[in-house]
Design brief:
By secondary structure, the chain is of the alpha+beta class. It has one domain. 20% of the residues lie in helices and 25% in strands. The strands form two sheets. Strands 3, 4, 5, 6, 7, 8, 9 and 10 form an eight-stranded mixed β-sheet that branches. A hairpin with a 3-residue loop joins strand 4 and strand 5. The longest helix is centred in the C-terminal third of the chain and has 15 residues.
Amino acid sequence: MNSKIGFVCSCCGEFHEELPMSYGSTAPYYWHGIDHEERNEDSELTSDQCVIKGEYFFIRGCIEIPVYEEDAPFIWDVWVSLSEENFLRTCEFWEEEGREAKLEPMFGWLSTSLPCYPETLNLRTMVHTREVGTRPYIELELSEHPLAIEQAEGIRMARIQDIAELICRMNNGEREHNGKQATD
């Protein structure tokens, strides 16, 4: 199956010309748990960075999953926590050309709860800085978690269709009872 061939969605029954090849979240999971009153001057959310209460630091990056017989990967756009030191260092080089050669990979905890998997919060990651204008590459620590296995081994287009249909059901109010939310 090619992403450009399209599919009839089992959720909505409509024909979609292409399979979505990426999904993302607009904020770290923990951002949604903070009352608006608690979001003070020490909390900030931008499209790529987040600070909560001046204590917790996150950046947005991409988990890329190889797709069999496709040139482009399937991408989960996710948030990862960093130590304050690594976050500040990342900010220091944010707009600097050649930053990818200056910043070593950094440890982080996955801070996005992805649908279609057992809980993904707090999976161990390494954050690899890329050129200015490209979100970091998020490498999951190899483990028995299905998401880590998919990143290491790849997936087929049928799996991407399954993900698209599950997210469609979740967005149409048929949320699973495991507490996960569809991606933003």
